[in-house]
Amino acid sequence: MTINTQEIIALEKQYLLQTYKRPDLVLERGEGSWLYDAQGRQYLDAGAGIAVTALGHHHEAVIEAIRQGAEGLIHSSNLYHTAPQALLARDLCESSFADRVFFCNSGTEANEGALKFARKYARATSRPDKTGIVAFSGSFHGRTMGALAVTATVKYRAPFEPLIGGVTFAEFNNLDSARQVITEQIGAVIVEPVQGEGGVTPAEPEFLTGLRALCDERGALLIFDEIQCGLGRTGKLWAYENYGVTPDLMTLAKPLAGGLPIGAVLLTQAVAETLEVGDHGSTFAAGPLVCSVARVVFNQINQPHFLAEVKAKGDYLGEKLATVVAQSPLLAGRRGRGLMWGLLSEIPAAEIVAEARNHGLIILVAGERVVRLLPPLTITRAELDMLIERLSKTVTAVG
Ligand SMILES: *Cc1c(COP(=O)(O)O)cnc(C)c1O
Predict the structure, then answer these.
(1) Does 151 map to a domain?
(2) CATH number, domain containing residue 348
(3) Could you give phi then psi for residue 217, rounded to 5 degrees?
(4) pLDDT in tens, 352-392
(5) Domain that holds residue 118
(6) Could you tell me if 76 and 11 lie in one domain?
(7) Which residue, 301, 316, 335, sits at the end of a domain?
(8) What are phi and psi of 285, to 5 degrees?
(9) CA distance 92 to 41
(10) 255 in a domain, yes or no?
(11) Rounded to the nearest whole angstrom, what is the distance from the C-alpha of residue 108 to the centroid of ligand 1?
């Protein structure tokens, strides 16, 4: 089968539901931090999908786990035990605040699960009135009805209302605003320790500490959405470790299985105890192949020297980005931590992202005015220098 770039794009225009605005770029293969299009052009990948391919592309250990997993059982359902799932659950619990894990297939599903578990916890602890949920401005938690209801972006919400009720938004990083809405009727507070999609905004330490205290005081469960900022992205295994605050539930997805679909809800024993057989489930979730791959990814990331390198490379990138910002009138600042950075743009961020492709650089937007960088955690310093050089050329060209 030979099909060229124009034919592929024509098929997508004719047959795919038009929910994505794609550039005329057909990707064909990847190697480490690099992507190649169908015409053989090379791009430095500073998006990693969207924080998914944390170990880069074509990673030997990932490929081997897929190969071996395919030789064994690809799928088993959740009606039976399998070793990879049990081992992955242990790895996640032993490395985190959590005592138990529920597996699913994506980020939005993980948040959907967390919201359901909070409802069940309220009922089981004789507080069925605690159905309210507090979320924050700038949040992104997913696209299904429950997760969308706690996502702030009006453009994503408006066409699908009514969403689930009982959700109140407070201002991110404003504890007073949170204090006003976390009432006795609130069962759960959901927050990203570092907001991703909403503009790459780290929570202030006092904000997360304050939320923990408010939740304890008012009897609400605290849910951390670490789907984007977790699993090494900030230079710690879990983003919450930067804050010294632990949640009652935490959701994971994006990088966990190196590009294969998986999601997870991590829970304390106190919450887990209120869930019973039949309360929630999934047909596909966490089959043996996917879990074997996730274990490989997890065990690579969960190494002190790997995480220290992410932190050091992240600090280096942050310094270099400050220089780019200082030199460009288009950029007003930068924020982030680890290998998760946002550049505040004076023009639509999409214009910078589009120009970057002409300089062999793949980057992302985070909202209208933020350019987002999420390189693979395995990116080298030499590649970071190339990233900076290409980014400088990009902003000069746009300017
Ligand atoms: C991407 C993302 C989600 C949704 O994940 P999907 O796998 O796309 O459903 C939820 N929360 C955060 C913080 C995310 O970045």
Answers:
(1) yes
(2) 3.90.1150.10
(3) -65, -40
(4) 999 999 999 999 999 999 999 999 999 999 999 999 999 99
(5) 72-301
(6) no
(7) 301
(8) -50, 135
(9) 38
(10) yes
(11) 6
- How many helices (H) and strands (E) the chain has is answered by 14, 17
Q: Does any domain span residue 218?
A: yes
User: Does the structure show a pLDDT above 90 at 349?
Assistant: yes
Q: Are residues 55 and 157 in the same domain?
A: no
0.70 cut: is pTM over it? yes
Distance CA 203, CA 383 (A): 28
CA 256 to ligand 1 center in whole angstroms? 12
Quote the number of domains for the chain. 2
Q: Which atom of ligand 1 is nearest to the CA of 192?
A: 13
Q: Which position has the token pair 């242990």?
A: 90
Three-state DSSP state, 94: helix
CA of 140 to the centre of ligand 1 (A): 7
Task: Look over the chain and give the mean of its residue pLDDT values, rounded to a whole number.
Answer: 98
Mutate to test the pocket of ligand 1, among 105, 108, 139, 191 (most ligand atoms within 8 A of CB): 108
Q: Encode pLDDT of 103-132 as tens digits.
A: 999 999 999 999 999 999 999 999 999 999
Copy the structure tokens of residue 27.
């990707």
Look up the CATH number of the domain holding residue 250: 3.40.640.10
Q: What is the CB < 6 Å shell around ligand 1?
A: 106-108, 111, 140-142, 192, 196-197, 225, 227-228, 253-254
